[in-house]
Amino acid sequence: MTACATEPAAEPGDERATRPTDATAHPADATARPMDVIARPTCVIAADGTYAARLALDGECWFPERWTLDGPEPYAVPLPSHQPEEPGTEVMPMSDGRVLIHRVADGRHTFSLLYPTGPGTGELLLGAVECHDEDTRLWLLPPAPDGEHAYALTAGRDSTAVWLVAGGAFGPEHLAEVPGRCSGGVWLDGTGRLLALDRRLDGRTKTVVVDLGRGGEVTPLLQIAEDSDDRLLLADADSGLLLVRSDAPSPGHDRLGWGVLGSTLPIRFPDCLRATDCTVTPFAIQPGQVLTPERCAVALCIDGPAGSWVGVWRPVERQVHHLAAPEGWLAGAGLWTREGVLQLPYTTGSVPCGVTKVTAPAAVVTAEAPAPPERPAARPVPLQQAPLGGQSPVKRRPLSARPTPEDEAFRAEGEPGGENRSPAPVPA
């Protein structure tokens, strides 16, 4: 695997070609991803919420499109190149208004910055990463919280590499090599230093943390049970709230759970997030709730026989609020404000660039039910052993150590057979 940096000449009179790069991220086509890579939304919103980017379709031709979201009304700017893009091309908005694009051709992954130049599109080539092994996949990570860099993963047969693809000095830079095949990608802090990855090793998937500030040092984060597959889906740096997917409470069947980074309490698996006839995927956490993670509103994308709609849930509640998604919603995309307003991007024939704003329903808190009996067979590593945001990860005791009695039971709210059949959405 090799990296190639390119230093193209800036266009005369164009200052934007020499500005520092900033970044956020977007997904590749499902056909180009390994099976265990978490699917990304079709529209990616910058970490600061100012811009979004997506691939738009004009007849049979795909082209990048940038959305501006921080003005009085959202508006879109097309960024077509000299030829149509492939359906699996990744794009991500930059905080300065440029759009990072990831193209693939014959095992060569190229990265460029696109920007509007009057009637046309300017392009600044950053470099390339070459992956000639058929089993190696490369995809962009979610937006880095610092807004100044963009990262990618290359997952091979036995190891996974972390690359800096935008924001560096000399094109793509290899930052770290992680043993095992990794997927996912969640930022744990507000600086873009601590990256959580779901690592497949020895037949099991567990979440680990890669410290990019310490040369890619790897430490464990999630091990709910020795024989479970545990994945981190979302994390909020302000509150420490974590959303996980694991088969620990129901071997062979994944459940959604939540915990708090650094907490002494075990992970809980609310019964209200369990459904038999649809798929529930969290995609946004309300920021700013520093001292009350249990009151953070979590946005859920619910896919069922009736289509896709939005769910809103808080850890303090024992129910999900089901809301109708706007027509043309770019499913899985959205952003919370600190005040609890969910912004959902959508596009229709009459409104090519729109954002619906939904205020989170008031919390409905019920009395705490008694804790279920302990499950002696499960031996989780509690979250207080996880690395804490802002600090370099430190393993506090070996994973093989026997947990103390008070740590032994994870908590699954509701009875084992209490699966829910989700109701149809209701208008917001």
Automatic annotation (TrEMBL):
Low complexity composition-biased segments: 20-33
Region: Disordered, residue numbers: 1-33, 368-428
Comp. bias (Basic and acidic residues): 404-414
Protein name (Swiss-Prot/TrEMBL): Uncharacterized protein
Lineage: Bacteria, Bacillati, Actinomycetota, Actinomycetes, Kitasatosporales
